[in-house]
Structure formats: structure tokens, C-alpha cells
Amino acid sequence: MKSTLLVLFLFTARVGASQDLQDLKTQAQKAVSEKRFADALRLYRSACGASTADVDCDVWIAKLSAWTGDYSGAASSYSQALASDPKNVDAMVGKANVLMWQHSFEEALGLLTEARELAPSNVDVELAWSRYYHWQGDDKDASLYLDKCLAADGANQEARQLKESLVPDHSIELRIAYEGDTFPGTNLGAIEQIDVSYIDRKGNIGIDFAHLDLFGQAASRGGLHFSRKIDSAITIRMAGLVGGGSDIVAKLDLSTGISRSMGHGFVLGADYRYIAFQDLKVNAAIGSLEYYFEKPIWLVASYGENRVGNETTPAYLIRFNARVARPLTLNVGYAHGTEVFQLALPTDFGNFTRDSYIGGAAFAFTKKTRTEATYMFSRRSTGALENMFLLALVHRL
């Protein structure tokens, strides 16, 4: 009799726990449907705590962590789900998406390949493959997978949004910019620029023209710029400007560089720049490092050595960028040393240095049109203060 009561008690407890677990999941799904993602995450965590090795809970915790900005937590939960169920396609795709945010494309490729073998017609797998190519600049292959995804699920909102962001086979981009520069004891400096670029899925080539009126000296310059993806990881770039030179305005400005994605969010770059003024020549070597966090935030740091005659002076820059909303990206930065990042002035070399504080924003009005604004405040080692602002309008035809 006692053993019968004990079995009945255990059975009732188990049924009650199972019912409680199901109630938590039902409440969590209701919160998801109402876009209360933080509440849904809390409920799924409670459900996961009430159940051991619940892969469904782990996957939902990972998804909701990503949707609420906790990408490290998302990666951890996806890994936990795969430890319990190594062939779980949802977990494979989810973890691959997180890895691609971190630019860890090689690791993501392994997961996506396995997911495609397990579920060759899965819409989420096709969408993830499209992202894999799109985030590496290969929109031609991205479009092929996206078409498969939309053929199976034409109402898929994520796929439709991704399709809107794909770069067409080719386009023309027009950029018009005005830069103002104030320096004590001089008139307002100005740089008027216009650039036209032909863009395809592997890179761009374009022409540049600028008229500069700085500190009482004026000149115009024109030139070309070029960049090209060699493969999914390596990009090369070159640029050149020539024109009427002076003590302030360079008569020749040449640069060449290369960058490589190293995985795990890191991109390394190296550039060489040659700048010739009327009576001064500058050789600059610049190394750069970019790091992409799990969400649309990235960090850029560079260090340069500028050689003028027999003297070499250092310069470094660090800039933090964040897309705070779909159309709006903000950045702040700090630079020290001689300035070779935008404009080289002879007074920056030798014993003169500057500390520069930078802030900027880019706002996309439409898919084809955006505006950019930058402000820089500089304090020179002589004590002089300088303000620079730049406004640009960019439109794709």
C-alpha cells in the first residue's frame, strides 16, 4: 500500500512539474508574439531551470539573448544546445549567425555546411547562407540563396529585408562634401569635394576632384581611387591625387594598402602614403586594426610613422563606431601626433603635434541616399586650437 502511494505521489509530482514547465513555455511564447523579448527570456530561463537538458529552451534562450543584444550569451546557449543535440539545425544556424557578426566566417562555414547536409531545403539554412555571402561582400551568391528562401517562403520578413540591402550588380555613387577649417589668425579654410564611383560587387573605381582654399592658399586637385576584393578575406586599395601644389596643399598624394579579415572579428590593414608639397615630401607607413563586436559596433585603431627628411614622427588614431538604429550610425574618436588621416599640413611635422577629438554621424534617408557629418576639435602642442567640420551628401544612382 505504501509503495503504491509513493508511486502515485511521484507520478503526480512529475505531471505537475511537466504542467508547470509547459505553462512557462506557453507564457514565454505569448511574450514573444507580443515582442516582449526581455520577459520571454526570463520565462524561458525559468523553464530551463525547471528542466534538465531541454534543447528547445536553450535554443530559445539563445535567440532571445541575441534579440536583446547579448550576443555572447547567445553563442554560449547555442553551444549548450549543440552539446545536448549535435545535429540540431536551429542551433547550428543560430550559432553561425552569431559567428558571422564576429566576422568568424571560417567557423560559421563549418556549421552552415553541416546544417545544409542535414536540412537541404530548410528556409532558415538558405537565409543563413545568403547572409554568409552578403556579409563578405558577395551579393551575387547571396542573391542565389535568397531567391531559394523566398521561393519557399515569400512572406519571410527577414529575407525580404535582406533582399533590400543587397548591392546590385553595378551602380554609380555620387558624393558631394564641404569641409570647413578654422585656425587662429587665418580666414576660414574650405575644401569642396566631388567624387563619382562605379561600384560592383567586388569593389569600386572612381574619380575625385577637390578645390582647397586653406590659410590664404588655394589650389585644385583631381585623381582616381580604386579598391578590389581579391577573395573573401583580402581587399586591396589604391588612390592618387595630383594638382597645383603649395606650402599647404599637396601637389601629389599617392596611397596604396591592403586589408585582411583574420576571423573572430579582427581585420588587419597596412597602408603606404606619399605626400609631396611644394618644398616638403612625406612618407607615411600606417598599420590598422579593426574589431567587430557581436552586434553592429566596431572599433578602428591605427598607428602611423611619418618620415619627413631624416626625421620620423608617430601618429595614432582610435575610433569607436555604433549603429544605434537602422538608419543612424554614430562614431567618436581620438587622434594624437601628426595628422595623415585626412589632410597633411607641414606645420604638423617636426616638433609639432596635435591632440584631436572627433565625433560624427551618418544617417540614411533611403536605401540610396545618406548624409554624413564629422566634427573635429584639435589642440596643437603650441597651444593653438583648431575646429574642423565636414558635411557630405551621398547618393546612388
Summarize the structure.
The protein has 397 residues and is α+β, with helices and mostly antiparallel strands.
* Relative helix content: 25-40%
Order of SSEs: HHHHHHHHHEEEEEEEEEEEEEE
CATH topology of the largest domain: Porin
Shape: elongated
Structural class: alpha+beta
Strand content: 35-45%
Uncertain stretches:
5-17, 339-351
The total domain count is: 2
CATH top-level class of the largest domain = Mainly Beta
Strand order of the largest sheet: 1-2-3-4-5-6-7-8-9-10-11-12-13-14
Whole-number average pLDDT? 81
* Radius of gyration from the alpha-carbon trace, in angstroms: 27 Å
Quick one: how many beta strands? 14
The biggest sheet, with number of strands, parallel, antiparallel or mixed sense and barrel status, is: 14 strands, antiparallel, barrel
Task: Report how far apart the termini are.
Answer: 84 Å
Give a structural overview.
By secondary structure, the protein is of the alpha+beta class. It has two domains: 119 residues, Serine Threonine Protein Phosphatase 5, Tetratricopeptide repeat, CATH 1.25.40.10; 227 residues, Beta Barrel (Porin), CATH 2.40.160.10. Helices cover 34% and strands 42% of the residues.
